[in-house]
Amino acid sequence: MLSSRLLPGLGRVPGPLQWNQVRGSKQKFGGATRDPFKSLQRKLGREQQRKHAKVPLMSEERSQIRRLAPITTTSLGQLVATYAPFEKFARAPFYTRAWLSQRRKAFTESVGTIYSLAIIRRRLRKMDPFRPVEFAKSAQQQLIDTNAALRDKDKRRLRALLTENAVESLKEEVEHRQFVWKFLEQIERPRVVNAKIIPMESKENYFAQVVVRLHSSQVMVVYNAVGHILRGHPSKPNRVIDYVVMERHLETMGSGLGWRIAGKLPPQIPWKKALPTTSDKPQGALPTA
């Protein structure tokens, strides 16, 4: 039989191993079955229970930091939809380990994309109906407008077309470089290849990011501050593949800020293979994953 000095209130407070012995014994004390651990817990004050809780309360310092740096509701500030499918000429051979890995990844992302697009359609049904074909075309036009605004150094237009993080990443490009850019033709029709929804603080507050694949012919030349060509050729068009990430806050009330460009993703090409007809570096300096 355990000694009485191990019982609460009758001696020193036992250690964790001794408490396990007491709890396992379920000794009869005072004519009824009691758990000494629970009886000691009831004797603790409210402040001590909070102090030893698994999830402590927010401290005053943390609450002040949160008030000084609140979470913005206009942009995520990062790229969450970071998947771009492999190009046809860059896919792994059939029935190899790399091929199985690519197929598994593509299937997982397609299931998530179907679910995310369903949520986007439901949220925007009354405000701005989401149709993937029309949305992809508008994303292409928005990228054209963004490159034109970057060429003309129109900061006001850039703030309307890009998220805050994307505008900040283009700050040096706008101030210290000159662009000559022209859209020639569309090679393949734009299409939606991936989508993600991100809940913020509650399941009723969603952000959405949609990846659109664009394949076009362009002419772009980048000059530095002294007029030297950094990239491109003034008379040589390039066939460019862009994976543009569009972002929007799915508000239940009001129209919000609409779809904006959050960044771009590089094409999925193995390092051993070169891109024969497409520039391996997308133009501009938008955020990439």
Automatic annotation (TrEMBL):
Q: Which residues form the Tim44-like domain?
A: 119-266
Keywords attached to this entry:
Mitochondrion, Ribonucleoprotein, Ribosomal protein, Transit peptide
Chain segments annotated as coiled-coil in the UniProt record: none
Localization in the cell? Mitochondrion
Keyword flag Zinc-finger: no
Any one cellular component term from GO for this entry?
Answer: ribosome
Task: Supply the Pfam families for this chain.
Answer: Tim44
Q: Which SUPFAM superfamilies match?
A: NTF2-like
The entry assigns this protein to a family as follows:
Belongs to the mitochondrion-specific ribosomal protein mL45 family.
- Output this protein's name: Large ribosomal subunit protein mL45
